[in-house]
Amino acid sequence: MDAEKKGPGQDGRKRGLQAVTHEFPPVYDENSRILILGTFPSVKSREQHFYYGHPRNRFWRVIAALTRNPVPETIEEKKKLLLTNGIAVWDVIASCEIIGSSDSSIRNVKANDIAGLLKKSRIGAVYANGAAAASFYRKYCFPRTGRPAFLLPSTSPANAAWTLPKLLEAWSVILPALSGGED
Predict the structure, then answer these.
(1) Is 26 helix (H, G, I), strand (E, B) or coil?
(2) SS3 at position 141
(3) Mind telling me the catalytic residues?
(4) How would residue 16 be classed by pLDDT, with cut points 50, 70 and 90?
(5) Does the pTM exceed 0.85?
(6) Pairing state of beta strands 93-98 and 87-91?
(7) What is the DSSP annotation of 97-150?
(8) Is the pLDDT of residue 33 over 80?
(9) DSSP string, 74-108
């Protein structure tokens, strides 16, 4: 009976701020041309230990459509899709306090070493998946990288105003950097 009274959020995910650390590495290799940055992994992504794990997040559908590939299902398929197409993925935040998956609740940020990643790769352009990622990048990473991050509309299910066709149109700006780029 007590379990029935607890209700939603009693597992701690929605109840209050939790100190959380990003527990999986960036995806990149020597052929990566662009870096797409999220803010911090969602609860679903943290459970799966990989990026964009929420089934309604449109990230994988967008990348698959733009690169003319099938939508990947497994983590290995997702990594292969990214790396085959010159795409690196990471998140701006290494650790923070957060309520569930809510970017607006994020406090006490420690940023990932984006500058270090850029120095040891051939990445020529940085993109932020959503306004929160762009804002945290500007505040915590841009002073060290000196490279702007181009804002893309968030693929999160919370950004329901952006339909998949609208996302594909907006995200198509990444294609020139993938096909040409500097050597």
Answers:
(1) coil
(2) coil
(3) 57
(4) confident
(5) yes
(6) unpaired
(7) EESTT-GGG-EEEEE--HHHHHHTS---EEEEESHHHHHHHHHHTHHHH---EE
(8) yes
(9) SHHHHHHHHHHTTEEEEESEEEEEESTT-GGG-EE
